[in-house]
Specification:
This protein has about 140 residues and is mainly α. About 45% of the residues lie in helices and about 10% in strands. Helix 4 packs across helix 5. The termini are far apart. About 15% of the residues are buried.
Length: about 140
């Protein structure tokens, strides 16, 4: 680390910015309706960017309403982990969450995960509003 002339803390060096391993952060919560205790993990920058890109468009670059509708569930799938920090769910669990979870638990967990990962929860809602004027790839006119 180098010193700073303004008397503030020392600046981080390259070694501190790029450690050998990603240091995941974890948090545990009780869901308000089911009472289940769950554990979540933080995401790397790559995982965050991939999640955000997948929320906006499909692989062809077309907007799909379904991508917006299941964005909360997909974030839960990415971040829900067991005691050892291993992901518990895969993409197929998104539909199970949609059909079997109380919406209040889903919303609560989504907001906790978004805050833990540094995501702005209004971004997805704004994207949905802004996309309403866009021709959607799965609309009847396509």
């Amino acid at each position: 680390m180098s010193t700073v002339s303004d008397g503030g803390p020392a600046l981080a060096g390259v070694e501190q910015m790029f450690p050998d391993l990603l240091k995941r952060r974890y948090a545990c919560f009780n869901l308000p309706i089911s009472g289940l205790r769950v554990r979540i993990q933080s995401l790397s920058e790559r995982e965050t960017s991939q999640y955000q890109a997948a929320t906006i468009a499909d692989k062809s670059g077309n907007y799909r309403r379904q991508k917006f509708e299941d964005a909360k569930r997909r974030l839960i799938v990415l971040c829900l982990v067991d005691d050892a920090g291993n992901r518990m769910l895969n993409d197929s669990h998104s539909e199970l969450i949609a059909d079997k979870w109380d919406g209040a638990d889903t919303e609560f967990l989504y907001r906790k995960i978004a805050a833990h990962c540094g995501l702005n929860t209004t971004d997805i809602e704004d994207l949905v509003k802004n996309s309403e004027g866009i021709t959607v790839a799965d609309s009847p006119s396509n």
